[in-house]
Amino acid sequence: MRLIDIYQKVLNLENLTKDEAISLYIDAPTSELTFLAHELRKIHKNDDKKVGWIIDRNVNITNVCIAQCKFCNFCRKPNDPDSYITSLEQYIEKIDEMYKIGGRQLLLQGGLHPDLSLNFYVNLFKQLKSLYPDLKLNALSPAEIVHISKKENLNYSEVLSKLNEAGLDSLPGAGAEILSDRVRAIVSPAKCTATQWADVMRAAHLINLPTSATMMFGFIETLNERIDHLILLRDIQAEKPKNNFGFVTFIPWTYQPENTKLQNLYPDLKKASAIEYIRTVAISRIILNNIQNIQTSWLTVGKDIAQITLYGGANDFGSIMIEENVVSAAGAKYSFDKEQIQKSIKEAGFVPLQRNQKYEFIEQ
Ligand code: SF4
Fold first, then answer.
1. Which of its termini does the chain have fewer beta carbons within 10 Å around, N or C?
2. 77-90, pLDDT tens digit by residue?
3. Distance of alpha carbon 77 from alpha carbon 111, whole angstroms
């Protein structure tokens, strides 16, 4: 198909086939690719100016993880001297700090701890919700749900329902990296498979638990595998019950290599370039025409590139992330406070609006 015909298909809001998406990514000039993505953002959001942002705090439940992914500098083995499980007192201190600056959402993530049961998470969520009734818990990930399901011999739906009843408000899409079992066998063989990741999300969508979709790219995956990843996300979203949340956003970020085992195995691996990030955000908006929000990743690519992506498909600047330990441990060095994030959005020519974890604006 000629490039011009693919452009027309995109603007007609038709799903691209894999071959069409690959041709578009390879052949379209960046200005045209980002133009198309920006047009779709205008159509899907019915707006071309508002950019969402949120105050939240990323707290790690534990740094113990049996998966030991090769790109992860954060995880520890159970008996490592610096391994930890966050205590209730520590949560209270961190949540109080977040409340003082207006945040109401905790992003709770951790590792696959061999000893933490479903009851541990249920009790934790209940305790936090009884102490802070208006707190929103955006917690765990499909990898942890698969781990807990195996440990408890329960299906994903049962685990998610119990966590949801205990206070889980939404499920982050972390741990997707690239949804290809070839890639996962090399970089994270002990983590959930691509099919398991997808099945957890399907189960979450059936009980109307909002989720997010992510992609970490720019390491050993091929372009084919990236496009397959995006098409799989589009397919999962298409299966959700019509009025349920499903994936409320898609967040692509770049692999951070610093001092990871993967860097030792593949010393020639180069981080994705600025142009690659900008083009990937754009092709994501184009393929994922059934996911409303595309969040740019200032944490991994920096303010300037993140600003450019607002003209190429992205409509959300993400969180000020009061505390982030996982990506930072592999070299991401950027940070924002709430004034700086709004200033950056304005500087790029957009209107910053604070939102909640469902991507609903809480100011107009
Ligand atoms: S990326 Fe997540 S699952 Fe993998 S080792 Fe690190 S904490 Fe564990």
1. C
2. 999 999 999 999 99
3. 10
> Among candidates 94, 4, 2, 42, which has minimal Cα distance to 310?
42
> Is 359 domain-assigned?
no
The Å distance, Cα 111 to ligand 1 centre, comes to 6
Contact yes or no for 344/299 (Cβ under 8 A): no
Q: Which of 141, 183, 188, 216 most suits a substitution to test ligand 1, by most atoms within 8 Å of the C-beta?
A: 188
Residue 109 CA, ligand 1 centroid: distance in Å:
10
Q: How far is the CA of 12 from the centre of ligand 1 (A)?
A: 40
Q: Is the pLDDT confidence value at 325 over 60?
A: no
Residue 362 belongs to some domain of the structure: no
3-class DSSP string for 163-214: HHHHCEEEECCCCCCCCCHHHHHHHCCCCCCHHHHHHHHHHHHHCCCCEEEE
In the chain, the number of structural domains is 1
| Within a domain: 363 | no
Confidence category of residue 312, pLDDT binned at 50, 70, 90: very high
Q: Which atom of ligand 1 is nearest to the CA of 110?
A: 7
What pLDDT shows up at residue 202?
98
- The yes-or-no verdict on residue 351 having pLDDT over 90 is yes
If you measure from the C-alpha of residue 67 to the centroid of ligand 1, how many angstroms do you get, rounded to a whole number? 6
Does 140 fall in a domain?
A: yes
Show the domain range for 177: 3-354
| Closest atom of ligand 1 to CA, residue 112 | 8
Write out residues with Cβ below 6 Å of ligand 1: 65, 67-69, 72, 74-75, 111-112, 143, 175, 188, 191
Q: What is the pLDDT of residue 327?
A: 57
Q: Which atom of ligand 1 is nearest to the CA of 143?
A: 3
CATH of the domain at 323: 3.20.20.70
Cα–Cα dist 349/62, whole Å: 40
Q: How far is the CA of 98 from the centre of ligand 1 (A)?
A: 25
Q: How far is the CA of 314 from the centre of ligand 1 (A)?
A: 27
pTM, two decimals, is 0.95
Full DSSP string of 3-50: HHHHHHHHHTTPPPPHHHHHHHHHHS-HHHHHHHHHHHHHHHHT-SSE
